[in-house]
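hey
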């Protein structure tokens, strides 16, 4: 299983009054890393949509372990597995300064193909590793 890594940095406006990243921003971090993961595989949401394939989040589980603060650099480590109709993204966020785990995430994504829940051979050919 290959793990995709996307590095980024916390922006000050993503922090709350306590000086830590607001919980809602972690979803943005995970989503951006998934988009980068797909682009690294030669896929784009716009192109998929043009072909009648819409990938939609069905469920997100986020377990907060340690907070990120303003200007912290972090890495989102992502890998994906197929479970039935779902594409399950396991995504962990680590603070780079000390390799501390900040969040453990699991995101279930399903495909809606021309308006119906289904499987996409097009997607599987590009995402599923042998």
């Amino acid at each position: 299983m290959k793990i995709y890594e996307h590095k980024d940095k916390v922006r000050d406006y993503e922090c709350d009054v306590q000086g830590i990243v607001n919980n809602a921003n972690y979803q943005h971090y995970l989503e951006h890393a998934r988009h980068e993961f797909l682009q690294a595989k030669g896929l784009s949401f716009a192109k998929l949509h043009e072909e009648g394939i819409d990938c939609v989040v069905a469920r997100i589980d986020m377990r907060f372990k340690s907070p990120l603060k303003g200007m912290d650099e972090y890495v989102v480590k992502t890998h994906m597995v197929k479970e039935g109709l779902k594409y399950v993204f396991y995504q962990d966020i680590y603070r780079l300064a000390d390799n501390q785990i900040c969040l453990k995430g699991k995101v279930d994504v399903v495909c809606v193909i021309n308006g119906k829940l289904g499987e996409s051979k097009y997607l599987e050919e590009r995402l599923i590793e042998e």
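The two ends are 9 Å apart (CA to CA). The first strand starts at residue 4 and ends at 9.
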